[in-house]
Model the fold of this input.
Amino acid sequence: MSRRLFCTLGPRCYRISLEKEILKRKVKNLFDGERIAKERSEKVLENIVKGHSSVLIRRLNGVDIRLQENKVTNIELACKKINGLVIHPGETFSYWETCGRPTKRKGYKEGLMICRSGMSSGIGGGLCQMGNMIHWLVLNSPLTVTELHHHSDALFPDERRRVPFGTGTSICYNRLDYRFTNTTDQDVQILVWCENGELCGELRSEKPFPERYRLVEEDHHFRREGDKFFRISKVYRLVIDRESGETIRKELILDNHSEVMYDYSLIPEEQIQND
Done:
């Protein structure tokens, strides 16, 4: 007979386990030697490396719209912490070291959260959209991702999706962080703000980098395996020489094989591939 994990014995046990993981991360941060970016500047760096925007409120099947509306408040609070942050060469961006713990006292509200491949709600829910934004900007740059936690399942059908499936990141204070390191020879800066119902973001630098980037998704389809459906695709990053326009290399960054967790009737029939 297998032993149950302590965190599964009840809400109090889960809370104790969570606080233990938060403390472990704090201790690790003290001794890992990373230089965490701290400086925010109102002076905007001149060159735009990548800009992007994403819809803040999506009509998700079976999800209380109030959680989506509260998410907007949570993201606006995170914007105030992140906007203008400068990451100097050799420094690391940490989502949670920058934003801090989302609490009710700080004004964060109950929003949608993804937990154990399912949906729940909690204070600060919805902040993963900010993590997704920053990760997308970084993927379109020569910066180096040092901590990333992929969503493992397809939880929602597409609605006005603008980026390849699976290119987001999971975050959970202070257990699952999102981090990247500035491995270039110049400062970079993150700008994030909310405008006209969208989360907007820019990654800026002092001068253009010699290469630009483009992400493409290939062989996207749905496939039944037994009594379950899976979303399948491969995501590549094209590295392009800025001067000549030639593709220097093609990098596989994601091999999606994600279980569909929503109503199968919402899967477009033309995207189902039978072996």
Notes: The CA atoms of residues 9 and 42 lie 48 Å apart.
